[in-house]
Amino acid sequence: MVERALQYARSAPAGPVYLVGAREVMEEDIEPYTLNQAHWQPLGPAALPEEAVHSIGDALLKAQEPLLITGYSGRNHSAVCHLEYLANVVTTLRVLDTGGSDMCFPANHPASLGLRYGVHDRIKTADVILVIDCDVPWIPTQCKPSPSCRIFHIDSDPLKQQIPVFYIPAEGRWKVDSCVAIRQLNMYLSEALSPDKDLAYQRGSNREHEHEERITSIRALGHPPQDTNSGYNVSQLTALLRSLVPSDTIFAVEAVTLTQQIHDQLLPSLPGTYINCGGGGLGWSGGAALGIKLAAGESKFVCQIVGDGTFLFSVPGSVYWIAQKYSLP
Question: How far is CA 329 from the centre of its chain?
């Protein structure tokens, strides 16, 4: 039963498993035995059918304003690189990260729209939207795609079986591994694409110009105040923090309502360097920062960014006791 529980926990969508056994069964005397670990591996990754690859790929190529929305694909660090390649091939593509967990797309890439929670003007104007591993791509009461927009959904759990009222008007949904699916799209587009080089350059330069303007405005918000006695706002404080820590710092961010401003100033661009909570609940970042440090080792600097309330929810007495006992700075 333990091996089966681990099989569930490591198969997509990966997550915790509650294993319960009756006391009477647990107290039974049994003969010792061994298990072949090779027989208890997680499920292998699933791929898109060929017709889906063609349908999605052709839609992205023909779109004037294609948009990709993701939230969890960065859990697989390889997916970040493949997604970046896709954005390089489709020069009109923009990518919106909804902060589901790990950083999914480098903020320094011209296609990046940064991190936003379900609201962005590009959602309203896009003519094709590809949703990848995302629970809340948009909030319909505040922002939703146009009725003519074509929507495709790739996810390890596209039906969101634990979310009773989940629905997006997608013309196609596939339960597949996002990294595998992105690689399939890249292969198809690389073979099928024969663009007008001047047009591709023009579209790409427009995207780069918009990205440069966005980064310039973000940096302006992070400039230190002229009068330091007046205090720092969250953008200024985060910009200062970013300048003081190593470039490959791993951030565990539990800032709740200030997450977007903090993400803007951190501009995470390396896979695995920005961790957000993949589920509900507050107070996770203290224990998570300890786990990240244990996994990353001494060579990596880990920084927890947390609000005052969520700091208390993390039971800081236990967090710092463990940090001291196991020498986890």
Answer: 26
